[in-house]
Each structure stands twice: as structure tokens, then as C-alpha cells.
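Hi there, hope your week has been kind to you so far. Would you mind checking whether the C-alpha cells look sensible for this chain? I owe you a coffee for this, so here goes:
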Amino acid sequence: MRRQLAAAAVATATGLASFLAVSTGPATAATAIEYVVVAEDGVSPDTAIAAIQGAGGSVVARNDAAGMFTVKSTRADFRVKATADAKLIGVTQNKAMGYAPRAPKLEQPLQIPAGSNRNNAGVQADPLDDKLWGLKMIHADQAHAIESGDRGVTVGVLDTGLDATNPDLAPHFSQRLSRNFAPDMADVDGPCEVASCLDPVGTDDGGHGTHVAGTIGAAANGVGVSGVAPDVTLVELKGGQDSGYFFLEPVVNALVYAGDAGLDVVNMSFYVDPWLYNCRANPADSPEQQAEQRAIIAGMRRALNYAHNSGVTLFGALGNANQDLGKPPVDTSSPDYPEGANYPRTIDNNTCLDLPVEGPHVIGVSAVGPSGNRSYYSNYGVEQISVAAPGGATTDGTSTSITNAILSTYPLKVLQELGRVDQNGEVNPAFADRVFKSCTKAGVCGYYTYLQGTSMASPHAAGVAALIASRFGEFDRQHGGKTMKPNAVERKLINSATERACPAATPACEGTEEFNGFYGHGIVDAYQAVR
């Protein structure tokens, strides 16, 4: 999925995180192009705005915490002039700029075997919990007998949205705290569904965010599935387009908002584009492209630092290219927007970053399959990884099955668009092995499907972090509910993980049993974390 980020200098010691709409002069709607501009470190907002205006731009919104400015200009040379100003890091055109790690194509499924309807703790499970091998692998079912989550712990799902009509997500969804930072873009998303192009919170026309949310916190309420932390509060932070692109600006605004709103955990199952690796000065890139990537790096750094310093524990997916992120190969996919603009780039690991997972304070998560082995698609690397978690592997050792993927909540609308559910809400028999319907006694139905990827692993780890904060957190006088310092959450997550050694005769896996590039500090363990 995609999002956009831009940053400028953090100008004040107070750390004000407002992202304000401002009016500094009209822009001609017919000819104006919108940009995101990032100021250099140490440059005040007023100085940055003066530089932007001097280059021919009109500031229409600003995020002082991240030093980011949304700008409109009719000048054809605005980007060149703004990039040349030493007070500004760089400029990006305000367009789709990133996407979630693409889940590998699922193999042809085998028949789903019948399973038990009770979890390992002996507590009655939700109807589809017998298919949640990931929940059992990390012993979340056992953890629930000790801690199932506190409503005062808030988890932000920074993604494509969240379908709050699903009866597994509705009970603990916070309409009040949720925000949409990513208006629909006709060129990538198609026609807007609402006049403002800003979809209401509680909707998800992409599906990815809803799947992630279910793994984190689907309610244990007798319908569908249970999440890792079924009693925490879920908050939608829509930073991605329906089409899967992310904008620079919405992502930064979402992270800053998460800090201001006092959220405890934020999951980020995506990476920032159009550059697979954002490089500070890649000789293959033009000066403007180099400046754009430096702006993305600076913006992500500021936004992530702001969220962390405000008490947010941050999680990021490592990606699905089966690559060592510390030894990146030639990048042939960037820039991936607009289509066809990509060209080969040699990547220098010292000056190029995969974001957000290589950003500050982000807990990087790799994926494992039901065997506990690293998933065949999962990225890895000792520089980036923190822990491993269930992400699915339809081919996992000797087992090949759709049931090796991760089952979670999914929007009815998207399943209908895919032809997997009919207009009457009935599952197409051709997809009965991978799409499920579960209804409450009142007749409210939720839908569920399998996906796999590090996008699915990261929310397992984020859910464990939410249980840790629920169990050991203290009352937050400012925001209410419980809170726990991110570094303390991370220590408990790491110390409770189940160590796993590198596979024998696998040179790509570097490190010891205590810490290595495939599994980091180990596979997360919810039960050990809350004991």
C-alpha cells in the first residue's frame, strides 16, 4: 500500500505537532501543482515558508513537528528553484509514493482440515480460531488467560483503512480517535466515493488495513476470529490510498497525530516509495531525485522520532523480496511511480534506507510459516531485524496449503469486487476454502480471508506489544488509559521472544541463536511476555 511523507526542520523545542491548513495566497486551480517540501534541520517554519514563497510556491498546509509543508505552485521551475535553496532539503510532487510489501501469490489451496474449537488455555475460542496457527505459535491463546488487553491501550493501524462494520472489529473500534489522512486520488484510486474524496473513518476500500487490524485486535466475542490482543482499542490511521499507494504527507501527519493523540502502538505494514531504497546521493539519480529522497529520509526520521518520543511503540514489516536488507541488490524497480519510470540503481547500504523499517525506533519484523522457519519470501538482515512473527508460508517445508497463510478480517465490499462473495453476501463456492463468513446471533456478519507476508507478521508482534502495555503499563494522566514507555515495551518483547538459531548450512543467515538475521531476538511469545 502507498503513502507519502515530507519533512522540514523541527523548529521549536515545544514539539508542537499541529498540521495546520494555512492560506498564504491563492493558487490557480487549473494550473497549480501540489508539492510537499521539507526544510533543512534548524530552519524555522517562517524561514522555510519565506524560501518556498521565494521559489514561487504558496503554502496551503504545514506540519511544524515534522517540518513539512504542502505547497501549490503554477511555476514550471518551482521544484528546481526550491531544491536549489539551501534552507530546503527537497521537494516531492504530492502524488502516490509508496506501497505495502506485496504478499506473494498464494499457492493452490488444499482442503482445510477440521480443527478443535478450543484454544490451548481451555477457553472457548471464536468459531474460526482453530485456523489461527499463528495465534497458537506465539501462545496468545494461553496469554489471554492472564491478559487479553486493556481498553485503555490504543493501537493505531497505519494502513489503507479499517472496516468497522465487521462485528469482530466494531466492539473496540474508536471512531473518536480514528482519522483519514489520505483523500482518494482519481488517477490511482478511480472516482471518489464521496464528494469530499475523503472516505469516512471505519471504511477500507483496499482490504489490507482491515486484515492487519483483525490480527492485532479482533474481539473474542463468539464470532469469526480472535486477535492477539482482543480487548485493546483499535484506531484507524488511514495513510494509504485505496489502490495501495501511500503519500508522503499523510504518513507523516498520521505519525505525528499518533504521538499527539497518545496512541500506545502503531503498526506500519508498508514501505515508502517511489524508491524501494531512499538514497542520499545515488549517482544514478538526478539532483532533484536525490533531494527528493533526502527529504523522504528526513521526514520519516522526524516523524518517527516524534511518535517515539511521545510514547508510541512502532512496528514495521521487513518486506517480501527474500533479500538481505543489509546487502541490497541492484534496484530495478524504482521509481515505481509513474509506471515505467524505473531504471537500474546500484544501492549503497551505508547511504540508502528502506523506510520505515530502517527508520529510528522501528521494531522490524520478519515472517515465519507454521514450521517456525523463515518464510520463503521474507526479507531479513542483522541490521534491520528485531523479532520474527507468524506471517504465513503457503509452501512451508513439506507442507503446501492455503491454510499455512494468515486468516483475518476482510471487507465485504472488497471480496464482492473480487468475485469471492456474491451480492447477497454468500461466499462463492469456488473460494470456500479461503473465504469465510461468520455471523452474530443478531445476524450481523463478518468476512475473513487468508493473506501472507511480513505485513501479517508485524501485527502479530504489535499485538504482543499491546498485551505488554496492558499488563505492565501505568495510568496516563494526559490521555487517560494505560501507557508504557516504548523502550520498556521493546525490552519485554525481546526478552520474552523464543530464540531460534539459523538453519544449518545457510550462509545467508548471519548471527547466533541469541540474535541472527532471520529471526532477530526470536519469535515473539505473548504468554511469556505477560507472565
In short: The first strand starts at residue 3 and ends at 5. The radius of gyration is 22 Å. The chain has a mean pLDDT of 88.
